[in-house]
Amino acid sequence: MGLNNLAVLLLDQGRYADAEPLFKRSLAITEKVLGPEHVAVAPAVNNLAEVCLLQARYSEAELLYARSLAIKEKTLGPEHTDVAIGLNNIAELYRARHQYAEAEPLLQRALAIREKAFGPNNADVAISLNKLGDVYRQQNRLADAEPLYRRALRIWQQTLGEDHPSVATSLNNLAQFLSLEGRNDEAAAMYRKAIATWEKTLGPEHPTVATGLTNLAQVCVSLHQYSDAESMTRRAIAIREKALGPNHPELEAAVKTLAQIYHLESRFAAAEPLYRRALAILEKSGIRDDAETADVMMDLAELYRAQRRNTEAEGLYEGLIPIAEKTLGPEQPALAARLYNLAELYRQDGMYDKAEPLYRRALAILEQKQPAQGTALARSMKTFAAMLRHMKRKAEAVALEARANAILRQQALMASSAR
């Protein structure tokens, strides 16, 4: 077996550290024999880039992927199907770094190349569809993502058969939509099928199996099946730690999920170090100012809040709100929820002057989203009104309470007419 083939085998087994020196030797030999700009050098460079990506060495991976793509474009032309592979790979790097806007045009170009070369129902087209769907999903553009996932699944089922890892990947992606729609039993069945396929084809210790286990655990949490969720998440963490080490970014989701399970079970002492570990993983990977970081910070803040550790919770909210403004936008209900939570903490600590502008800003956001956010708006108005009463501003409180009650009556009428 050649060096490159052995390295690919180790890579497929998740043994990245063992594969890397073999890829390096293979690249050095190819460069020496053919020269650094030969078309055969591009896949060797690409393989080494993939090993760096899987070990979260993003800067190294980016340089290698860019070199591989440049060689392909120069020697094969910009519309060659091997160029599409290079575009997909760089996009995957951007996706791993949460740079979705940078990934999207690369994936769109790769999809166009493959559809032109292979037609609309080719397995390689399905790969591009699935990757582009991932980027849309991670930007919460679910309506854009779903048809791409469904088209990819149909293509893979027709071309590869039901028991192929790529079919399992599509099942995993579609299960996420079912879960978002509250169809958790259907989602769980789809996740279980995907995991079984991956275990059969890739082996039970492959990192991809850990992805499925983490996703299934999150559904089990929604179904209040905490014991099952805990065992799945622990297994997912063990798989990823063995394959990737203790600080790889791919560990963050499973670590955060286990923290959330303990949080929901009021096992606060067990949850706190896991939330902190998830934040440390994100920071070490260079992901400090994105939505995922803000979400973990909010979870930890709510853990402190549940323990009446308000000062620590306030510090986290003060840090995460600027991140949420950047990642969510200034007019999103999710931002309003974070503003409201910090206002509540300030109110509980008697810091009314700090709480008031946060309440007002949250209310302004929610009022723009009427009637969809009517219930949240009314609740926020009533809480703010209670604080105004404590501040001896009774007239303002009464007016706000009247508005809240009117919104709730309108919500009740709308619900009744919809029946």
What is the strand and helix layout of this fold?
Elements: H1 3-12, H2 16-34, H3 41-54, H4 58-76, H5 81-96, H6 100-118, H7 123-138, H8 142-160, H9 165-180, H10 184-202, H11 207-222, H12 226-244, H13 252-264, H14 268-284, H15 291-306, H16 310-328, H17 333-348, H18 352-368, H19 374-390, H20 394-418
Structural description of this entry:
- This protein is mainly alpha-helical and 419 residues long.
- It has a domain of 93 residues: Serine Threonine Protein Phosphatase 5, Tetratricopeptide repeat, CATH 1.25.40.10.
- The protein has 20 helices and no strands.
- The radius of gyration is 25 Å and the shape is elongated.
- The mean pLDDT is 91.
| Average residue pLDDT | 91
- The number of helical runs is 20
- The CATH topology of one domain, please? Serine Threonine Protein Phosphatase 5, Tetratricopeptide repeat
Low-confidence stretches: none
- Give the CATH level 1 class of one domain: Mainly Alpha
Report the principal-axis shape. elongated
Helix/strand structural class: mainly alpha
- Record field, number of beta strands: 0
Main β-sheet description: none
Cα gyration radius (Å): 25 Å
Give the name of the CATH architecture of one domain: Alpha Horseshoe
Which series of helices and strands comes N to C? Answer: HHHHHHHHHHHHHHHHHHHH
The named CATH superfamily of one domain = Tetratricopeptide repeat domain
| Termini gap | 68 Å
Strand content: under 5%
Helix content: over 70%
